[in-house]
Design goal:
The chain has helices spanning about 15-20, 25-70, 75-100. By secondary structure, the chain is an all-alpha fold. The protein is rod-shaped, with a radius of gyration of 30 Å.
């Protein structure tokens, strides 16, 4: 029993020799997708490194803020402001961590 191939809106029926060939755009797009995946992996690696460095910086920043908070006078208020700023940056760091997982 022979399979019949339908002709749609004036198109030629598909020949058996064309059914096994991949379209040209699929062959040409492979390097593009490979480049995209490679660059994505590099971006994720860099973001992870950025998170580690940012965490270390915020730890040092928090020590400065704690030292300023522990003093007397107007420096105590500056220390409180620095602590609030550090907390805001830590929330940004946690959102960046979610982005890289």
């Amino acid at each position: 029993m022979r399979q019949t191939r339908f002709v749609h809106a004036g198109r030629r029926p598909l020949s058996d020799s064309n059914t096994n060939k991949r379209p040209k755009f699929k062959r040409a797009s492979y390097p593009t997708w490979e480049d995209f995946v490679t660059k994505g992996a590099k971006l994720q690696s860099q973001l992870r490194t950025t998170i580690v460095v940012t965490g270390a910086f915020l730890d040092a920043f928090q020590k400065v803020a704690d030292m300023a908070t522990g003093t007397r006078g107007a420096t105590k208020e500056i220390g409180s402001a620095l602590t609030r700023m550090c907390m805001r940056h830590r929330s940004i760091e946690s959102k960046l961590k979610l982005f890289t997982t």
